[in-house]
Automatic annotation (TrEMBL):
Single GO molecular function: monooxygenase activity
Alphabetical UniProt keywords: Flavoprotein, FMN, Monooxygenase, Oxidoreductase
Protein name: Nitronate monooxygenase family protein
Keyword Flavoprotein belongs to the record: yes
Keyword Oxidoreductase found: yes
InterPro entries tied to this protein: Aldolase_TIM, NMO
Amino acid sequence: MRTALCDEFGIDYPIFAFTPSEHVAAAVSRAGGLGVLGCVRFNETEELEKTLSWLDDNTDGKPYGVDIVMPMKVPEEVKGLDVSSMIPEEHKKFVDETLLKLGVPPLPEGEGREGVLGWLHSVARSHLDVALQHRPVLIANALGSPPVDVIEKCHEHGVKVAALAGAAKHALSHVRNGVDIIVAQGYEAGGHTGEVASMVLQPDIVDAVGPDVPVLGAGGIGSGRQIAASLALGSQGVWTGSIWLGTEEYRGMGANSQAWETAFTRATSSDTVRTRIYTGKPARLLKTKWTEAWNEEGAPSPLPMPLQNLLVADAHNRISAANDPDVISMPIGQIVGRMNDVRPVADVIASLVEEFDEAVGRLDSIRT
């Protein structure tokens, strides 16, 4: 399992792993892939600085990447504006009443935190500035192309830029803006996702951008067979996310480990839903009583990004602390149906490589 991207990034396998956990990212990099740390959860640059310093020291000198959330179009942000004041009272009331109906208790006095500010453009830029003071080899943007000046700044530091795309036209736009690597993220994926399935999307994007632009297949990838399929479709590697939620290193990321593990190990591939209730943009989540409540008659429409995330931030904290697998709120892809146990990251990487070799061997055996 070796492509040109392995030589370009100094990795053993073209397996790119998005994760909000520095422990997972470090373990993936140490095992031969490329761990990519999601930064949206960091409200304070000091916390991100500390985390990236930890990554520098705990990857055995292996490369890693950083994922930011930055729209191509710079929104107008008024300095000093209390963004939460823009959230309608109707929405706040709905969230409060829904939590009460679902039996989610309030947090103890003084606990909880403010909404995730990483969805704001200005905060994402601060994330980039901090990251470039460390040693990432890749900056990925979850919302497509970042502004051109951001891409140029990364290139000045010798850092490649990747951007997610859900359609061939988006991929072509990314390339024109200077993006180096396209992540072709299919409908099956967790988190933000488009409407075209991976089997169709990957060859569409590969053909559109041409042989000189590497493409990573994303969405529904959780086994070596699926990696083999992605490479057969023309991708030079894979971008994975959901499967790392089921690793030992992910434990301790805020969600109650037992409740979360119960929720995803019992889920099937049909137990996800694509909705705007998490961030304001379409994202695939685990289907629970929380997601179903937003589909009931009388439920308000989700707010645009970043207001929706700010609206539900405290609710997510309460849900996380409630230890109830029926209410968990978590982005995850349709691959959840294959996530039936919790393993160390190194074991997952080893299984992916072994399964890939077996899949390629089967194909070789049936060639005439």
